[in-house]
Write a structure and sequence with these properties.
The protein has 137 residues and is of the alpha+beta class. 31% of the residues lie in helices and 30% in strands. The protein starts with 18 loop residues before the first strand and ends with a helix.
Length: 137
């Protein structure tokens, strides 16, 4: 008997772990560590080649990602809080730091390091994102 996952159940990122991934310039995943697979509920081979937005949670405002891509293109890096969607419908919060990877001065891909988020910060950011979503609609 298969049970349906409750989308209101959060998976916690362990405090001693980092989620690491790399993407090509279009945002397709080229590398995912075991922690990314474990926390997101996917197998590594299910992540490779997929757009990174495979884990985009519907609670995330579009403007956050618009700003992310703008900062990556203009300043080369972005950091912020992201609520991600697990394969099973649950979610997890991360503090993400994304930057370009260069070879001989040429941007070849992006790397992302993601760390756990404290509960108080999750509540604060969720309220902010809820307000942004309302304004976007």
């Amino acid at each position: 008997m298969q049970t349906r996952f409750d989308p209101f159940v959060e998976t916690l990122v362990p405090s001693d772990e980092l989620i690491i991934s790399r993407t090509d310039l279009s945002g397709k995943i080229t590398y995912a560590n075991e922690t990314f697979a474990l926390i997101s509920g996917y197998e590594i081979d299910e992540l490779i080649g997929k757009p990174h937005n495979i884990v985009r949670h519907p609670d995330m405002p579009r403007s956050i990602f618009k700003g992310l891509w703008h900062r990556l293109h203009t300043e080369g890096s972005w950091s912020g809080y992201v609520k991600n969607l697990r394969k099973d419908g649950g979610y997890y919060w991360v503090y993400a730091e994304i930057s370009g990877v260069y070879k001989d001065g040429v941007l070849i891909e992006y790397k992302s390091l993601r760390a756990p988020v404290e509960d108080d910060k999750k509540r604060e950011v969720q309220a902010l994102y809820d307000d942004l979503k309302v304004k976007e609609e």
